[in-house]
Design goal:
Blueprint lengths: L1 E6 L3 E2 L2 E4 L8 E4 L2 E2 L4 E5 L6 E4 L4 E2 L2 E2 L4 E4 L13 E4 L7 E6 L6
Antiparallel strand pairs: 1-6, 1-12, 2-5, 3-4, 3-11, 4-10, 6-7, 8-9
Length: 107
């Protein structure tokens, strides 16, 4: 699964959390400030996990992976059945959107 977070204005510490299944309460948070049109991509595919900020693995000379904070046994994954993910930030008004891209395991 790939999670894409796109900022529409400045947002601080974007966070995606799960509120269903075995991952209920798990989250992934990127401790950074995003500007309008900035994009964070988080690839949670086992064996290919990565995170980029505007297509780069670094932001201001710092590895983007070091900005990642997560709660749970592992990075978020899609589970069988219904999945509910929520996006938030440290800001009062969250001005961003997110997409989740997934493939069947055999593709």
């Amino acid at each position: 699964m790939t999670i894409e977070i796109v900022a529409l204005s400045t947002i601080t510490n974007p966070k995606i959390s799960c509120s269903t299944g075995e991952q209920n309460g798990w989250f992934m948070k990127v401790n950074t400030t995003m500007s309008a049109n900035d994009v964070i991509d988080i690839n949670t595919t086992k064996g290919a996990k990565s995170i980029t900020y505007n297509g780069s693995t670094t932001k201001d000379g710092v590895p983007v992976l070091s900005l990642l904070e997560f709660k749970g046994k592992d990075w978020l994954q899609l589970e069988q059945g219904e999945n509910t993910f929520n996006v938030s930030s440290d800001d009062q008004a969250f001005d961003a959107y997110f997409n989740i891209f997934a493939k069947r395991r055999w593709e």
